[in-house]
Amino acid sequence: MSGHSKWHNIQRRKGKQDSVRGQRFTKLSRDIYLAAKEGGGNPDTNFRLKTAIDRARQSNLPADSITRTIAKATGTLEGRHYEELLYEGYGPAGTAIMMEVVTDNRNRTAADVRHIFAKRGGNLGESGCVAWMFRRIGEITITKTDCSLSFDDLMLLVLDAGADDIKESEDEYVVTTAPEMFAAVRDKLEESGLTLSDAELSYEPQNTVPVEGETLDQVLDLVDALETHDDVQNVYANFEPVEEADES
């Protein structure tokens, strides 16, 4: 799940992670494939590929798997051909959900995703049904332990680079940009000596729907099921969890 909304933080606190090592490797390999296919096989000139390789190494994806994936994407080695798709749908309580999908068989993936929605009180929609509720943004993450600047100094730097905003959480800073400024801001921050822990284009809901209780559990179950599917790379949704107050 991408993004830095409250519902993402709730899942991280619960320790939600891919439980199957092979599934994690599959998603990492597809990230590498798409990055190399889009921008070439040299990570020194392809930041998306560099980021994907760094993620893969952190998760102990074997080096030969990384090399083979890049070779397949650039056409120097035979292999499956993947395409990147955007699926949209509705979850419980009318929540809007978007998914970035990478697949070598769009009919199979569509059937699988449709089944996941139907089984959990939602439905897979037509292209464009919820996209208007989201806006495309660039997100650049800087871990606090990797940054020697104060928040004020960092804010001046990122705004001068052309970013829209910067937000601070417990352990990181998240810089947001317009899509067309993403590459320029990312490059300028790197040139300034900052270490970026992540940088990607994402989707952010323009408005959120408060969800609580049993409905929240149903929505989170749907998001979990979508994220678990091998072909689903990222999930975005427009709900805002309402955490119940502890009774004393």
From TrEMBL:
Residues 82-239 form the TACO1/YebC-like second and third domain. SUPFAM superfamilies: YebC-like. InterPro entries: Integrase-like_N, TACO1_YebC-like_2nd/3rd_dom, TACO1_YebC_N, Transcrip_reg_TACO1-like, Transcrip_reg_TACO1-like_dom3, YebC-like. Its main location: cytoplasm. It is found in: Cytoplasm. One of its GO terms (molecular function) is DNA binding. Residues 5-75 form the TACO1/YebC-like N-terminal domain. This is Probable transcriptional regulatory protein JZ786_17295. The lineage of its organism: Bacteria, Bacillati, Bacillota, Bacilli, Bacillales.
